[in-house]
């Protein structure tokens, strides 16, 4: 009898997850003026689920990715917009803010 209950619960959980609504979207952005070559950004509505930064300074890009995960797009834009890296006039965080602005415009 316990096996039947376990199977029933497992079946219901999987069956109803099929119909669970998700707004997960993956965006790819080519930054300019920085060492990194691509940002792969996954959002669920206005929440950032993950950011993968290809290229650039490994420690910094991993840190930025970890810090923005789970945050609201607007909050991240407000924090990162305008940050500069040396004399470049931009930075990976600034380019991420630009990417997020572009994503917001497509929502």
Strand order within the widest sheet?
1-2-3
Biggest pleated-sheet summary: 3 strands, antiparallel
Mean pLDDT comes to 87
Order of helices and strands: HEEEHHH
Principal-axes geometry comes out as: globular
Spans of 5+ residues with little confidence (pLDDT < 50)?
A: none
Structure description:
The chain is 48% helix and 22% strand. It has 107 residues and is of the alpha+beta class. It has a 3-stranded antiparallel β-sheet. A hairpin with a 2-residue loop joins β2 (36-44) and β3 (47-55). The protein is globular.
List the helices and strands and how they pair.
Layout: H1 2-18, E1 24-29, E2 36-44, E3 47-55, H2 58-68, H3 73-80, H4 92-106
Antiparallel strand pairs: 1-2, 2-3
Q: Summary?
A:
With 107 residues, this protein is an alpha+beta fold.
Structure keywords:
3-stranded antiparallel beta sheet; 107 residues; 48% helix; 3 strands; single chain; alpha+beta; globular
């Amino acid at each position: 009898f316990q096996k039947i209950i376990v199977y029933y619960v497992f079946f219901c959980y999987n069956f109803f997850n099929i119909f669970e609504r998700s707004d997960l979207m993956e965006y790819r952005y080519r930054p300019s003026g920085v060492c990194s070559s691509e940002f792969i950004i996954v959002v669920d509505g206005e929440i950032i689920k993950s950011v993968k930064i290809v290229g650039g300074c490994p420690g910094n890009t991993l840190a930025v990715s970890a810090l923005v995960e789970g945050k609201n797009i607007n909050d991240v834009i407000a924090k990162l917009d305008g940050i500069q890296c040396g004399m470049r006039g931009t930075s990976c965080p600034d380019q991420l803010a630009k990417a997020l602005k572009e994503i917001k415009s497509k929502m």
